[in-house]
């Protein structure tokens, strides 16, 4: 039987074409599956390489020392994992160049056994630095006045890949003296380099928005993985059923000539396994061919190293064994009617209609999520995963299970409301076999559900975190050097430490002398000074810490607000990102302009034309003058950096949408083409009986469009319902409808799907000729 199955798989033109098409479809699906799995592994690998940045971070569990880390260059830091007798002074902060974040680590050794960060052979000495390859290249090409002057001293070497999350990462490790860092705000003494990735810290305790925290990796990433894998698995399942009806008829004929069910099962399994093994091999080829280009796509906001898109041994074994095994099982299940009675196939007996019980899994998934809405999700991340992930999975499975019943209901409604022959034929065919009809659009239905959930949750998160900031071009034109690091909680407001002494006349002259820089404003410190804030705390008006500004200077930068008439000094809030500053009128301060010159500075504002050169030259001057400050940024840069988590999750959501929609289109195209091939003889008989080709096209269009539109409406509605429950549970914010881009994307997806259906019409003409109608 095995030999006969192999001969049947390659004997005849039709069999070879069927084998090639099936192999190509399974290969594409397997390649997509491997890419999705390797993408999940890449996110975890990239996240792990953020671990050393969290050295000294209070959000990382204490007492965790990393083992020696061998970099990709073979360099093993000798003391990176032991409890060192000589602690290492450590200060992590961020810098910016042309909108790109630079992670800067200042270190100072206190003994010969001080720990060493990964990726470098030894700690840099005072005045030396190690830079990542991308930053080293940038330092060579950018003028020193825009970047290099921030890091005086020689380049000691480049940082190895073991310490870099991405090939494009801009990282620098600067050597200082212990005396310098001992006076720097935020510096810590580290006895070991952290090996705990950002997933080991919780929420806001993670520094600088590095990587994905525990909640994102354990809850968000599994949902993303589920949303990517399910459409791929549906596509593979659809591919393994290509030409199912034709094979069913052929095997039924073999049963009628005396073949027993076991023999038919073996032949079917051999045919399917041959195609699945070939497709599985082709899938691995597709994966390795696309791994390099895919690594350059910034799925998490940064590209991956090609090696990050890797497959573990369990992944390889599951795919290599699972795909052929699944194909053999699918072939056996597809022969259920043949095994029971071949007469039911040869006479084309109508299968039993799907029952209403099929909606129960969908309702159960919604009920499971609704239960946690009423009760409240667990506070621990593992508990949230156990509570929410089964609900999402059950809803997605429920849509697939309920699809045939919804298709049948749509067909019956269509039949009751029309008298046209093509519509009645399509309705009858849908009602006869709604499972096959829905199978063609199941991938797209899941893609629409995933798109709806992603878009709705992102819009809600944006609404929750959104703040009104300086708008228009001004967001990129005002450079602010405001010390916001290491602040403590005061009496109802945040106390920002001063930068230090007020900028000298020389520094102000240098700033104003930069081509593209206009006015410069100094925010002076006055301890205890506050202004009314934008919100309330426990029913009391919130008050923000404020600084003093000269009204003469403020008048030159109207985007930062104005002074009352007749005032010479005004009090300005330091929470500059939370207000529409252009319309603000700041309260007058009873301080003379002459007294300001004796006060320390809270911050410095420089108005630029927004181009790279003046912004970076001014930033370099300010950071050199105030090295302990958090770094000068524009309003736009500060906004992006403060919402790093949302940006990363939005990037992942975009990836899910861009992956699921094309896969759904492939599933639809494969299913329609296979359905036409299986029904070419009935359609040919109808053409010989006088049915116009246009009528057959309407039949094909309705058979695909009705289940698509009917179940898509349910999927989109379910997506909004699930999003609303998630927003209530996790975001504590009412659901906010997505913007116009979502509706345009959804409409475009449906329109493209209808276009795929229309693209099969030329095939309908070719396969319904008179020669096809002959008896076989």
Short description:
With 776 residues, the chain is of the alpha+beta class. It folds into 4 domains: 1-50 and 222-350, no CATH class; 55-196, no CATH class; 421-467 and 643-776, no CATH class; 474-642, no CATH class. The chain has 25 helices and 14 strands.
Secondary structure topology:
Elements lengths: L1 H9 L2 H36 L39 E10 L2 E10 L19 E3 L1 H9 L13 E4 L11 E6 L2 H5 L5 E3 L23 H26 L4 H13 L4 H35 L17 H22 L1 H5 L1 H5 L13 H16 L5 H36 L4 H12 L1 H32 L8 H4 E5 L5 E2 L4 E2 L9 H8 L4 E21 L2 E11 H4 L14 E5 L19 H4 L4 E8 L3 H14 L7 E2 H8 L1 H35 L1 H9 L4 H39 L8 H20 L1 H7 L9
Tell me what the structure shows.
The structure is a single chain. By secondary structure, the chain is α+β, with helices and mostly antiparallel strands. The chain folds into 4 domains: 1-50 and 222-350, no CATH class; 55-196, no CATH class; 421-467 and 643-776, no CATH class; 474-642, no CATH class. It contains 25 helices and 14 strands. The strands form 3 sheets. Strands 4-3-5-2-1-6 form a 6-stranded mixed beta sheet. A hairpin with a 2-residue loop joins strand 1 and strand 2. Helix 14 packs parallel to helix 23 and helix 14 (434-465) packs antiparallel against helix 24 (740-759). The longest helix is centred in the last third of the chain and has 39 residues, at 693-731. It is elongated, with a radius of gyration of 33 Å.
């Amino acid at each position: 039987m095995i030999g006969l199955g192999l001969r049947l798989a390659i004997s005849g033109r039709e069999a070879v074409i069927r084998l090639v098409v099936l192999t190509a479809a399974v290969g594409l699906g397997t390649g997509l599956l491997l890419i999705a799995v390797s993408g999940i592994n890449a996110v975890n690998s990239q996240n792990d390489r953020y671990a050393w940045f969290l050295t000294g971070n209070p959000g990382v569990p204490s007492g965790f020392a990393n083992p020696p880390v061998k970099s990709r260059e073979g360099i093993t830091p000798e003391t990176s994992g032991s409890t060192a007798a000589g602690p290492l002074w450590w200060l992590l902060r961020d810098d910016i160049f042309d909108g790109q974040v630079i992670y800067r680590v200042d270190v100072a050794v206190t003994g010969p056994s001080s720990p060493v960060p990964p990726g470098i052979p030894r700690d840099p000495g005072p005045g030396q630095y190690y830079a990542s390859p991308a930053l080293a290249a940038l330092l060579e090409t950018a003028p020193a006045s825009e970047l290099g002057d921030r890091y005086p001293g020689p380049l000691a070497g480049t940082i190895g890949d073991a310490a870099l999350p991405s090939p494009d990462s801009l990282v620098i490790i600067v050597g200082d003296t212990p005396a310098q860092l001992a006076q720097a705000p935020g510096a810590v003494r580290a006895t070991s380099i952290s090996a705990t990735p950002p997933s080991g810290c919780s929420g806001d305790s993670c520094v600088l928005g590095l990587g994905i925290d525990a909640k994102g990796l354990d809850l968000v990433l599994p949902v993303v993985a589920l949303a990517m894998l399910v459409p791929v698995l549906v596509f593979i399942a659809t591919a393994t059923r290509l030409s199912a009806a034709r094979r069913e008829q052929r095997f039924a004929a073999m049963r009628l000539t005396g073949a027993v069910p076991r023999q038919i099962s073996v032949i079917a399994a051999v045919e399917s396994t041959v195609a699945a093994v070939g497709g599985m091999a082709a899938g691995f080829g597709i994966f390795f061919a696309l791994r390099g280009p895919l690594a350059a796509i910034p799925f998490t906001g940064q590209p991956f190293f090609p090696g990050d898109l890797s497959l573990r041994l369990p992944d390889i074994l599951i795919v290599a064994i699972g795909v052929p095994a699944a194909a053999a099982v699918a072939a056996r299940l597809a022969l259920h009617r043949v095994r029971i009675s071949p007469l039911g196939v040869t006479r084309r007996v109508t299968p039993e209609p799907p029952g209403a019980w099929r909606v129960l899994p969908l309702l159960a998934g919604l009920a499971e999520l609704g239960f946690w809405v009423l009760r409240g999700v667990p506070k621990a991340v593992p508990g949230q995963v156990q509570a929410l992930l089964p609900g999402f999975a059950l809803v997605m499975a429920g849509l697939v299970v309920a699809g045939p019943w919804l298709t049948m209901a749509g067909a019956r409604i269509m039949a009751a409301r029309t008298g046209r022959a093509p519509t009645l034929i399509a309705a009858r065919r849908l009602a006869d076999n709604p499972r096959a009809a829905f199978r063609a659009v199941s991938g797209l239905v899941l893609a629409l559900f995933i798109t709806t959930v992603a878009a709705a949750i992102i819009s809600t998160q944006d609404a929750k975190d959104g703040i009104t900031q300086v708008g228009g071009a001004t967001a990129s034109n005002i450079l602010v050097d405001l010390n916001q690091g290491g602040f403590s909680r005061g009496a109802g407001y945040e106390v920002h430490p001063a930068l230090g002494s007020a900028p000298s006349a020389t520094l102000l002259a240098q700033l104003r002398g930069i081509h593209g820089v206009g006015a410069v404003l100094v925010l002076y410190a006055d301890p205890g000074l506050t202004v009314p804030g934008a919100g309330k705390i426990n029913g009391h008006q919130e008050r923000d810490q404020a600084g003093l500004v000269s009204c003469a200077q403020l008048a030159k930068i109207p985007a930062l607000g104005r002074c009352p008439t007749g005032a010479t000094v005004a009090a300005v809030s330091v929470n500059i990102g939370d207000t529409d500053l252009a319309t603000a009128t700041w309260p007058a301060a009873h301080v003379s302009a002459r007294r300001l010159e004796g006060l320390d500075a809270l911050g410095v504002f420089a108005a630029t034309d927004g181009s790279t050169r003046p912004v970076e030259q001014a930033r370099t001057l300010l950071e050199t003058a105030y090295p302990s400050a958090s770094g000068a940024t524009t309003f736009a840069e500060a906004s992006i950096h403060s919402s790093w988590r949302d940006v990363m999750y939005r990037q992942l959501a975009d990836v899910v949408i861009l992956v699921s929609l094309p896969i759904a289109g492939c599933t639809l195209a494969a299913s329609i083409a296979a359905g036409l091939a299986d029904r070419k003889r009935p359609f040919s008989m109808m053409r010989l009986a006088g049915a116009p080709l246009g009528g057959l096209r309407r039949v094909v269009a309705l058979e695909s469009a009705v289940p698509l539109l009917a179940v898509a409406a349910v999927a989109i509605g379910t997506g909004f319902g699930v999003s609303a429950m998630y927003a209530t549970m996790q975001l504590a914010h009412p659901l906010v409808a997505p913007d116009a881009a979502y509706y345009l994307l959804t409409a475009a997806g449906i329109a493209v799907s209808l276009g795929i259906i229309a693209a099969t019409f030329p095939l309908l003409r070719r396969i319904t000729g008179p020669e096809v109608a002959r008896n076989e």
